[in-house]
Amino acid sequence: MLKVSYYIDVRKRAQELGCNIPTSIALLPRNFEISASKEELIHESTTPTVRVLWRQNGITETPFEQPEEKFPFVSEHAFEWIGPTIFISAMLFKSKPTLGDNRAECYLKLSNRMV
User: Fold this and answer.
1) What does pTM read for this prediction?
2) Which ranges of the chain does DSSP label H, i.e. alpha helix?
3) How far apart are CA 42 and CA 51, in angstroms?
4) With pLDDT > 70 as the criterion, what percentage of the chain qualifies?
């Protein structure tokens, strides 16, 4: 299910934590909003899979972590697939006004490739 919602100021929060500031599309760490420090940030275990699929499809991500940094992954052993939260910056929407037109279709295509 695709859910679009309002969220905290990601740029400000990334600065507070000392993370890269996303300028396009990014995968939010699970605890991005409540983490006390960058060292506490964790990604969903499916994050690497999404990143590979994005690269294969020419989608450029602005990761929160530096290339030499690796945030740990959390894996919950459940029946359902738990994907990471995808952040799309306002800057990207402004530069590509039709991006939101097919976001559900794009998400479904990515999700179907993972099954």
Assistant:
1) 0.67
2) 10-17, 47-56, 90-95, 103-114
3) 15
4) 66
